[in-house]
UniProtKB/TrEMBL annotation, chain A:
<dbReference type="InterPro" id="IPR001806">
    <property type="entry name" value="Small_GTPase"/>
</dbReference>
<feature type="region of interest" description="Disordered">
    <location>
        <begin position="130"/>
        <end position="169"/>
    </location>
</feature>
<protein>
    <submittedName>
        <fullName>Ras-domain-containing protein</fullName>
    </submittedName>
</protein>
<keyword id="KW-0547">Nucleotide-binding</keyword>
<dbReference type="GO" id="GO:0003924">
    <property type="term" value="F:GTPase activity"/>
</dbReference>
<dbReference type="GO" id="GO:0005525">
    <property type="term" value="F:GTP binding"/>
</dbReference>
<dbReference type="InterPro" id="IPR027417">
    <property type="entry name" value="P-loop_NTPase"/>
</dbReference>
<dbReference type="InterPro" id="IPR005225">
    <property type="entry name" value="Small_GTP-bd"/>
</dbReference>
<dbReference type="Pfam" id="PF00071">
    <property type="entry name" value="Ras"/>
</dbReference>
Automatic annotation (TrEMBL), chain B:
<dbReference type="InterPro" id="IPR035969">
    <property type="entry name" value="Rab-GAP_TBC_sf"/>
</dbReference>
<feature type="region of interest" description="Disordered">
    <location>
        <begin position="837"/>
        <end position="884"/>
    </location>
</feature>
<dbReference type="GO" id="GO:0005096">
    <property type="term" value="F:GTPase activator activity"/>
</dbReference>
<feature type="region of interest" description="Disordered">
    <location>
        <begin position="897"/>
        <end position="945"/>
    </location>
</feature>
<dbReference type="InterPro" id="IPR002048">
    <property type="entry name" value="EF_hand_dom"/>
</dbReference>
<feature type="domain" description="EF-hand">
    <location>
        <begin position="650"/>
        <end position="685"/>
    </location>
</feature>
<dbReference type="GO" id="GO:0005509">
    <property type="term" value="F:calcium ion binding"/>
</dbReference>
<feature type="compositionally biased region" description="Low complexity">
    <location>
        <begin position="839"/>
        <end position="863"/>
    </location>
</feature>
<dbReference type="InterPro" id="IPR000195">
    <property type="entry name" value="Rab-GAP-TBC_dom"/>
</dbReference>
């Protein structure tokens, strides 16, 4: 297969972020998309929309990320954003036990109401608040190298916890507990810190691996009116004229090296 | 966790009066202090003119006296309008002009005269004048005229146009108040967004000053077409806050509620609520790029306004997007002004946008979509085809008035128009945005592209709309100007009436959607469904919902989203809805057949079932039995778990359930009192059963229970204290452990009727039936639907029933029958032949019933003080007439209680009486209760098996 073919094989994946207010949904996205962290992000009204590419070995995913509002009363709007989503990240705050409960109810809702093949990941954010100063430890080094310079490199150490008292005592959700729940509900599970960047790349990379890309390719092709749904892989380079252009032109603003 | 809110059911379209008041930027209902003066309300036809203007400038319209306001609108309802507080009117003169013309000249506080010529018939005109005079007098008495003087000083326009004092009155007072500076926003200190030169600030101010001189200002502002044009070119920054206040009507609120803002803050100082916590999270995230919001000063102001509002309106509390609105308006106005403007926004201009269900937002999104379909069908069809939802982009436009979508300077100009021309502006601008981007929109294939396109467009609003034009003047037109032009020219067809009609059309759908959404969520969030299916849980939810509609749970039970929690606040984001006893009674009456009184009324014209909620201690008991968290209130989960505990039971489980229900201290024993209460509960359940079979069963049960209880107690005593004292009977208090489950079970099983009751009837008496749409069902749209819903009200139905009953009585056809709760016996049969009990017995009892004594003798037994008689045989009923339950029951109960000391019931005596009992009960009289227990139980089982 030629390199060019691989490059063109950009697959759009709709991903939605859900979770209680102020658990750091927008910050996770900002870290992933711009490798940046803002202490004061405007609350999301309705939902924010961002895109980011994520490269796997042989293909590129283009995440279309819907970052939803967390306040309870926006709940009834959420279906508008998670419909047709292929992936969802349900975020909770490791320092707030109640936020995991909310996350569980989101998972339940997604499993019942959303696209049946949706890949759901559970992310316990604000990990930096419960670590004293240990450096982030990348969990999937094999991908790290590949991805690092592309978009979402783990930033240099920024142990700027002014209180200095940040430690395990703040933690309200034990890793085991969340992990056990995630396993039971068959979710991907990560603890992350949007502030330090820990776990963020891994989160999105693992989701990317789990997405049934061939399935999506086949279905988008079908939607585009093509008949060749069978060997989606092989025909990837000569499909979806419009989408390709769109992806290529958008590539500029999505990439943020 | 589930929160059930019924407030959507209460929403109704504003009536004519309210619409009228709203069109004059007044609150839908008059202030409570003004209720008295509403008697002066009157309206007349009138023509408005200003003395300095020519005849052509006169506007025909309608003049309203809405104390404490005088209001006018021109016939087209938009070109000219005013809302004058009566206290600004200093002088009213009848003009001596040509005969047949009735004209008044009103001079106001700002020294301006307006002339209204009343064109209604003379008597009406006279009445109007009289009312106006009285209303003015009342205002004078209330001291509003004085309050007004210091109030107007807070307005910038007074500074803009100095020397407005009408001919030298009360100069001294004015000097005193001179130091009350006008109110201003953060912008004065932290700069206003945009370049003042580019915005031509100075010349705009000049134009407004001219307008204010001739047409009044702040409280006395007359809205002539010119004012709308001035607003459309953008308000000058310094004046913006005041004009927003005036146009939106929040000025009147601030005027009539002096000091309220500060008072709310003071009263709630230090209080924490869900809302204050949510506000705290967002304070640093509201227009963070504006310099003031990087300082304590700005943040504190924002906090105070949002918090004060959340306490003023705890039901709404705080919704994200309000922070952005308030941050924006605080640039142009003081905290108090912003507070009242926020009130007007939430209450009137954006109704329901920020409520917990956000129904207003959802509704207007639907309305917008419908307008797009009507006005821009091609775009609508394309969106439909590629499955793009309009709301993903348009929702934030409406929710934050474009403030976080467009660059601030443009957003504020839309906000100017919004306050001036009303909510329709949002729809007009929204449609214009789509129309201008029409071609590009037809290219998009998904939501993402739509958002991108919109973002790019908003970013380019400052660019030239016609960059390639050769005419420099055309080139100078910005895309924003083009947007406004399209919005107000091409979409001028969108009026307030259009919006109102559309809202009316979709409101039912939206409410239904929200309600079924929250129902699904509640069912999904149940931690334990028990044996229920989701659908059944849904039915329970529906019944609960209906009960809440009838009797809303008391406010104290609601953790209260935003309701002020004294002391340490409750942190739950969504307080769980819990119902109190009153609501529970209604809930249970919908499910349990015995928890309601159903009267079958036939009066010759109709046969109907009147249903009333029953009241009995048993229901209270179940309520507390199900209250797992001991907080005096039940959640949806409690109800599901509780019902699950009884609706899937077999015989043994039911017996145990009923036993535990009455075992208050859960020690495994019923006391004598509890035993009596238990019997009473059974009688309550059986109260409408036809015949006396059940009554007999209960009295036998009581006799048996006490008999066994005593026997057991006796042996216990013998065992523990030795035989020596056996002749000295020991007193047992009425509230000491007495009867255990095994004995209770045995006693129940000794009777077919009770056995059948616990085996099937108890469980079957709980019925989940889908209920028709609630009593407050959303109004049907359309003329006939509306007409029907006004005619068929609950009251009217009742009246009709009463009428037909009366008729029925006169013709002797009126008949009322209680529907039995268990209803084993068919009603028609029962009606014809109240004594027919055989079917009941034979159908439920597999063994032949043997009888030797009538139930009436059984009941009489205790009072006859024949302590030896203990077990009553199964009932023969032939000769017993249906007894009155309650008195008889009490007699029996009293008699049973009189039987102390029980110990004299010597077990040996029993043999004499129940000689012919074949079912093994005879064994029970054996003092060795353990054996007796076994035998009986075995006996039962073999029989059942």
């Amino acid at each position: 297969m030629a390199d060019g073919a691989q490059q063109d094989k950009s697959v759009q994946v709709k991903l939605v972020l859900l979770g209680e207010a102020a658990v750091g949904k927008s910050s996770l996205v900002l870290r992933f998309v711009s490798n940046d962290f803002q202490a004061n992000k405007e609350p999301t009204i309705g939902a924010a929309f961002l895109t980011q590419k994520c490269r796997l070995e042989d293909r590129t995913l283009r995440y279309e990320i819907w970052d939803t509002a967390g306040q309870e009363r926006f709940h009834s709007l959420a279906p508008m954003y998670y419909r047709n989503a292929q992936a969802a990240v349900v975020v909770y705050d490791v320092t707030k036990a109640a936020s995991l409960e909310k996350a569980k109810s989101w998972v339940k809702e997604l499993q019942r109401q959303a696209n049946p093949n949706i890949v759901i990941a559970l992310a316990g954010n604000k990990l930096d608040l419960v670590q004293s100063s240990s450096p982030p430890t990348p969990t999937s080094p094999s991908f790290e190298d590949d991805e690092a310079d592309d978009a979402t490199a783990t930033p240099g150490e920024t142990p700027d916890s002014p209180e200095g008292s940040t430690n395990e005592t703040l933690r309200q959700v034990p890793t085991d507990e969340a992990q056990a729940y995630a396993t039971e509900a068959s979710l991907l599970f990560f603890e992350t810190s949007a502030k330090t960047g820990e776990g963020v790349v891994e989160l999105f990379t693992e989701i990317a691996k789990k997405i049934p890309i061939d399935h999506i390719l086949a279905s988008t092709q079908g939607a585009a009116g093509r008949s060749g749904a069978a060997g989606a892989d092989g025909q990837g380079n000569r499909q979806q004229g419009i989408n390709l252009d769109a992806a290529a032109s958008k590539g500029k603003d999505a990439c943020n090296c | 966790m589930s929160t059930i809110s019924t407030h959507l059911r209460k929403i109704r379209e504003p009536n004519k009066d309210e619409q009228l008041r709203q069109s004059f930027a007044l609150t839908p209902a008059p202030d409570p202090v003004d209720v008295d003066s509403q008697k002066y309300k009157i309206e007349v036809n009138a023509t408005l003119s200003l003395p300095q203007e020519s005849e052509e400038e006169a506007y025909a319209g309608r003049l309203y006296l809405l104390p404490p306001y005088l209001a006018f609108h021109s016939l087209d309802r938009k070109s000219t309008r005013f809302t004058l507080p009566l206290c600004t009117i200093r002088r009213v003169e009848r003009l001596n002009t040509r005969t047949g013309i009735f004209a008044l000249s009103l001079s106001n506080w700002h020294g301006m005269k307006i002339i209204v010529q009343i064109t209604s018939l003379r008597p009406t005109a006279d009445l109007f004048c009289a009312h106006l005079r009285d209303a003015l007098k009342l205002e004078l008495q209330r001291g509003q005229m004085k309050a007004m003087k210091s109030f107007v000083k807070t307005c910038y326009s007074e500074t803009l146009i100095p020397d407005n004092t009408p001919a030298g009155t009360e100069d001294s007072e004015l000097v005193q108040t001179e130091d009350v500076a006008y109110l201003c926003g953060l912008g004065v200190k932290f700069k206003f967004p945009g370049d003042p030169k580019k915005l031509r600030e100075a010349s705009k101010l000049k134009l407004w000053a001219t307008y204010f001189r001739t047409h009044g200002r702040n409280l006395t502002l007359l809205r002539y077409p010119q004012s709308t044009r001035l607003v459309q070119v953008g308000l000058p920054n310094r004046l913006r806050g005041e004009v927003w206040e005036t146009l939106s009507g929040s000025l009147y609120l601030r005027f009539s509620n002096p000091g309220l803002y500060e008072r709310i803050l003071k009263e709630n100082e230090g209080k924490v609520s869900t809302s204050t916590e949510e506000i705290e999270k967002d304070l640093n995230r509201s227009l963070p790029e504006y310099p003031a919001y990087q300082t304590e000063e700005g943040i504190n102001g924002l906090r105070r306004v949002l918090t004060a509002y959340s306490f003023k309106n705890p039901e709404l509390g705080y919704c994200q997007a309000m922070n952005i609105l308030v941050a924006a308006i605080l640039i142009y106005m003081s905290e108090e002004q912003a507070f009242w403007l926020l009130e007007v926004l939430c209450d009137r201009l954006l109704p329901g946008y920020y409520s917990p269900s956000m129904h207003g937002t959802l509704l207007d999104q639907r309305v917008f979509e419908s307008l797009v379909k009507k006005c821009l069908p091609i775009i609508h069809d394309h969106f439909h085809e590629v499955d793009v939802q309009l709301s993903v982009a348009s929702l934030p436009w409406f929710l934050s008035l474009f403030i976080n979508s467009m660059p601030l300077i443009f957003a504020f100009r839309i906000v100017d128009c919004f306050f001036c021309m009303g909510p329709k502006v949002l729809f007009q601008v929204g449609l214009a945005i789509l129309k201008i981007n029409g071609e590009a929109l037809l290219e998009i294939q998904d939501d993402g592209a739509f958002i991108h396109l919109m973002r790019d467009y908003f970013g380019s609003l400052g660019d030239s709309a016609h960059p390639n034009s050769s005419d420099p003047r055309t080139r100078a037109i910005t895309r924003f100007q083009e947007l406004l032009l399209v919005a107000f020219r091409e979409f001028s067809v969108i009026t307030e009436e259009t919006i109102a009609t559309e809202r009316k059309q979709f409101r039912g759908d939206i409410i239904h959607g929200i309600e079924s959404f929250s129902k699904r969520a509640s069912v999904r969030n149940l931690k334990d469904l028990g044996n229920f299916t989701k659908d059944q849980a849904g039915l329970i939810y529906d019944i609960l919902y209906k009960a809440i509609c009838v009797v809303p749970p008391p406010a104290s039970l609601q953790g209260g989203s935003g309701s002020p929690n004294s002391g340490q606040g409750q942190v739950a984001e969504r307080p769980e809805t819990r119902i109190g006893l009153a609501t529970f009674k209604i809930f249970l009456s919908e499910i349990a057949t015995w928890a309601r009184d159903e009267k079958i009324v036939s009066n010759g014209f109709q046969e109907r079932v009147d249903r009333e909620v029953a009241d009995h201690e048993l229901i209270d008991r179940i309520f507390f039995f199900w209250d797992s968290s001991r907080c005096g209130a039940l959640s949806f989960q409690d109800l599901v778990t509780g019902l699950n505990g009884v609706m899937f039971n077999d015989l043994m489980a039911n017996i145990e359930w009923f036993f535990t229900l009455h075992d208050k201290d859960k020690d495994g024993f019923l006391t004598k009192d509890e035993l009596l209460i238990l019997s009473e509960s059974m009688l309550f359940i059986f109260r409408y059963e036809v015949g006396d079979a059940y009554l007999g069963a209960v009295s036998r049960f009581m006799t048996n229970a006490f008999e066994y209880g005593d026997a057991i107690h006796e042996t216990e005593r013998l065992k523990t204290s030795g035989e020596a004292e056996s002749e000295k009977p020991q007193e047992l208090g009425n509230n000491q452990p007495y009867l255990n489950l095994a004995t209770f079970r045995m006693v129940v099983l000794a009777d077919e009727i009770l056995e059948s009751f616990f085996e099937t009837d108890l469980t079957a008496s709980f019925q989940l039936q889908s209920i028709p749409d609630g009593p407050l069902a959303t109004p049907k749209s359309g003329f006939f639907g509306g007409l029907l819903s006004t005619i068929v009200t609950d009251d009217n139905v009742k009246r009709f029933h009463k009428f037909s009953d009366d008729l029925g009585k006169t013709i002797g056809q009126h008949q009322v029958v209680h529907r039995p709760s268990i209803g084993r016996i068919d009603r028609p049969i029962a009606l014809q032949e109240p004594k027919a009990r055989e079917p009941l017995l034979s159908s439920t009892s597999p063994r032949p019933s043997v009888s030797s004594a009538s139930s009436s003798t059984v009941l009489a037994t205790p009072s006859n003080s024949t302590p030896s008689l203990s077990i009553s045989p199964p009932v023969p009923e032939k000769d017993v007439s249906p007894p009155e339950i309650t008195p008889l029951y009490h007699a029996a109960a009293a008699a049973v209680m009189e039987r102390t000391p029980f110990a004299i019931d010597d077990p040996q005596d029993d043999d004499d009486d129940d000689d012919d009992d074949e079912t093994g009960e005879g064994d029970t009289h054996n003092p060795d209760d353990k054996v007796m227990d076994e035998v009986l139980y075995d006996c039962r089982r073999t029989r059942c098996g």
